[in-house]
Amino acid sequence: MKDQLNYYQIPRDEWKKFYQKHIVPLNNQELLQIKSVNDRISLRDVQEIYTPLVHLLGLRLAAQKQLLAKQAGFLGIKPAHVPFLLGIAGSVAVGKSTIARLLQLMLQDIYPDKRVQLLTTDGFLYSNAQLERRHLLDRKGFPESYDMAHLLSFTNDVKNGLPAKAPVYSHKIYDVIPGKYELVDDPDILIVEGINVLQLPSNQQLYVSDFFDFSIYVDAQEELIKKWYLQRFEMLLDTAFQDPTNYYYPYAQGDRQAAFELAKQVWEDVNHPNLDNYILPTRNRADLILHKTENHLVNELFLRKY
Ligand SMILES: Nc1ncnc2c1ncn2[C@@H]1O[C@H](COP(=O)(O)OP(=O)(O)OP(=O)(O)O)[C@@H](O)[C@H]1O
Ligand SMILES: CC(C)(CO)[C@@H](O)C(=O)NCCC(=O)O
């Protein structure tokens, strides 16, 4: 393990040894559940990377509870129930939502009595109508396309144990769904996944990450992420985009090569500059940087020391 300023740089072979003696092999039902998240997830990574990670999260969860109880003791009040917030950041298509769903499943599995909820920040994008009004339609995904004040007040409510409603985004209609909300009502653990969870809103005093108890940045070389983005697009052309009500239906009907060129252009015009200018600079705010290589396999982790 190498020391790197405020991070421990931990190669896979070292990380996989952490906590292994507490780990029991996955049973059939657990394997099936993992396959239902994504049937291409490496089970070796589940065992060697994500299982120790879930144990580390368990330690952080217990430490948060203890700190809250001690502080309440100091104040002479009853400790409040404060949800544990886990943030997951990284580029478009790096695999944030897959990791978020995997961690939700694994945490729920070891804490069957706890309520583990998952949320993406996509719902906090301005609607297409609002984006158009602000001349931001071609800026979807960039910091100014999100209602960050809303995301902050939402996160604040969640931390305070208040019922909070998150708007819902649909990739199918390429817009926020009018009037649709997801209720977050005092969960034990809330996983918040999105490209912007470690960003600083321009006119606010707080980061969303100020509310996080732990944060993960999913990292990989851009060439690989672009490949995963294009592979996902190709796969969607054969599946979801075949639905006539899907926003991308015309692309699935038209010339394949033209559709593919469009996806490449979206990467160059939107996802690449967004990653370079606004997402990557937030990497060093994360408590853990998970670095992936070919086939989404994790080769190295950086854990914040303090
Ligand atoms: N561990 C993994 N093993 C194999 N494939 C994976 C893994 N993680 C993600 N993928 C694939 O990579 C692509 C991107 O993953 P995912 O949708 O989770 O990314 P994301 O970061 O949440 O993207 P977005 O920001 O666009 O929502 C998908 O096609 C997914 O199936
Ligand atoms: C919803 C976001 C911004 C983030 O997940 C992204 O998936 C997206 O839709 N970006 C817009 C560029 C595009 O059309 O792919």
From TrEMBL:
It is found in: Cytoplasm. InterPro entries: P-loop_NTPase (IPR027417), PanK (IPR004566), PRK/URK (IPR006083). GO terms for molecular function: ATP binding; pantothenate kinase activity. Residues 86-232 form the Phosphoribulokinase/uridine kinase domain. ATP binds at G90, S91, V92, A93, V94, G95, K96, S97. Keywords: ATP-binding, Coenzyme A biosynthesis, Cytoplasm, Kinase, Nucleotide-binding, Transferase. It is an enzyme of class 2 (transferase). It holds the Pfam family PRK. One of its GO terms (biological process) is coenzyme A biosynthetic process. Its EC number is 2.7.1.33. Pathway: Cofactor biosynthesis; coenzyme A biosynthesis; CoA from (R)-pantothenate: step 1/5. CDD domains: PanK (cd02025). Gene3D superfamilies: P-loop containing nucleotide triphosphate hydrolases (3.40.50.300). GO terms for cellular component: cytoplasm. SUPFAM superfamilies: P-loop containing nucleoside triphosphate hydrolases (SSF52540). It catalyses: (R)-pantothenate + ATP = (R)-4'-phosphopantothenate + ADP + H(+). Belongs to the prokaryotic pantothenate kinase family. This is Pantothenate kinase. It comes from Liquorilactobacillus vini DSM 20605. The gene is coaA.
